[in-house]
Design a protein that fits this description.
The complex is a heterodimer of chains A (160) and B (231). By secondary structure, chain A is an alpha/beta fold. Chain A is built from four helices and seven strands, in the order H-E-E-E-E-H-H-E-E-H-E. In chain A, strands 1, 3, 5, 6 and 7 form a five-stranded mixed beta sheet that branches. In chain A, strands 2-4 form a two-stranded antiparallel sheet. The longest helix of chain A has 17 residues. Chain B has two domains: 73 residues, no CATH class; 143 residues, no CATH class. Chain B starts with a helix and ends with a helix. The radius of gyration of chain B is 21 Å and the shape is globular. By secondary structure, chain B is mostly helical. The longest helix of chain B has 23 residues. Chain B is built from nine helices and three strands, in the order H-E-H-E-H-E-H-H-H-H-H-H. Chain B is 51% helix and 6% strand. Chain B has a three-stranded parallel beta sheet with strand order 1-2-3, with helices on both faces. Classes of the chains: A alpha/beta (160), B mainly alpha (231). The interface between A and B is large, with 83 and 84 residues. Strand 7 of chain A pairs parallel with strand 1 of chain B.
Chain lengths: 160, 231
């Protein structure tokens, strides 16, 4: 987004006071193969899911830290958004899913040979969590395990 | 969602993260982060602008060259963000002889159906699970709720509490209106669409009334749901 300067006073304060993890170090895994041989998956915090899958829920305490699985062959028409925040413009995603989950763009990169291949599944969480602990301890590692099992090398993470 | 990048990287996966709040990304110290100066909702730049979306992805891919982190790079192209309008920012100008929101839905249906045709069936509608031919019932349910009548719908799944169900219904109605309007006025700016919805529709008036009813309660969970309907 937006640089915070461009936000309203109330939004800026909300952003600045949002609870964030503040660790000292950074975990680091180098890509071990050339990009053109790597398998890529998409993971988003946009609260997306398959039409017919369980929508995300509003949780006044910490937020919904569950995740949804989206097969990478899914068409845009079969993907819905149930993010609880109304602090972003929903019209962008209505016009084009790629603005948040670039399913067509990554396919084009694979077709051009820039990226090796697409994973079988993409994963979606919902951001704006006030308590990310269950995500860090449970659902995040679970998705990491699934990505590893599918042989994914590179994960592209997008917000909404 | 920079924390996820950390979790994945610990597991041995390489990550590239797009961040929209630079200040948060800085604190979380995720491995490779591209900050994009776009409005919320526009992570990859603009809808239907594939070249720009590719430039954003390409700038993220460039971060793979780095040998240590945290890396936090700024995407160099800046878009002047249009402020997102909320309900409270739009005066309601609906005439006294207020239209029935259910009739309003009917008059918009042809435009919505054209949206479906133009977008290969893609629509943001679909959270509440109630077929559109029964939406008159949804409107009556919301009206009854806004009058404090303890309303409910038999279609509500048992594990979805009433306020959450209302949220899904309202999100579907909003999506229906927005997609119909985007069909009517394909070149309208986002703020014109928001201004029309919150300023000129009977549905927005009803949504405001539902939120008001929730806000009048002492229950903080209800206020939380009201905040997600209209603020």
């Amino acid at each position: 987004m937006p640089r915070l300067l461009t936000l309203s006073e109330i939004n800026r304060k909300a952003m600045l006071s949002f609870p964030c993890l503040e660790p000292d170090s950074t975990p680091w895994s180098l890509l071990r193969k050339p990009l053109s041989q790597s398998k890529i998956s998409l993971v988003t915090s946009a609260g997306l899911h398959l039409r017919g899958d369980k929508p995300f829920i509003g949780d006044p305490q910490g937020g919904d830290t569950s995740y949804r699985i989206i097969p990478s062959t899914t068409q845009a028409a079969d993907i819905l958004q149930s993010h609880v925040s109304i602090g972003f413009d929903h019209t962008a995603l209505m016009r084009d899913l790629n603005v948040t989950l670039p399913i067509d763009r990554v396919r084009e990169l694979v077709d051009k040979g820039i990226v090796g291949s697409l994973a079988r599944h993409y994963y979606s969480f919902m951001g704006a969590l006030r308590n990310p602990k269950p995500l860090i301890e449970t659902t995040g590692p679970e998705v990491a395990g699934r990505l590893k099992d599918e042989g994914v090398d590179l994960v592209f993470i997008t917000p909404t | 969602m920079c924390v996820l990048a950390r979790v994945f990287e610990v597991a041995g996966l390489t990550t590239l993260t797009i961040a929209m709040v630079r200040e948060h990304a800085e604190k979380v110290k995720a491995p490779r982060v591209l900050f994009v100066p776009f409005p919320f909702g526009y992570a990859l730049g603009k809808p239907n602008d594939a070249p720009l979306q590719h430039r954003v992805i390409g700038a993220a891919i460039d971060l793979l060259q780095r040998e240590q982190g945290p890396v936090l790079e700024d995407f160099p192209e800046e878009e002047a963000p249009e402020a997102l309008l909320q309900a409270s920012g739009v005066p309601h100008v609906l005439p006294e002889a207020k239209q029935d929101p259910a009739d309003e839905v009917t008059t918009l249906r042809a435009f919505y159906e054209r949206w479906l045709e133009d977008h290969n069936g893609r629509t943001a509608v679909g959270l509440c699970g109630i077929p559109q031919r029964r939406w008159r019932g949804v409107v009556r349910f919301l009206e009854s709720y806004s009058r404090g009548e303890g309303a409910d719908m038999q279609e509500r799944p048992a594990d979805v509490p009433v306020p959450q169900f209302i949220r899904y219904c309202v999100d579907d109605l909003k999506a229906f209106y927005y997609e119909a309007r985007l069909t009517q006025r394909p070149n309208a700016s986002e703020s014109e669409i928001h201004r029309w919805f919150w300023g000129e529709t009977a549905m927005a008036q009803l949504i405001r009334a539902v939120a008001q009813r929730m806000n009048a309660s002492d229950n903080s969970a209800l206020k939380y749901f009201a905040y997600g309907l209209s603020r």
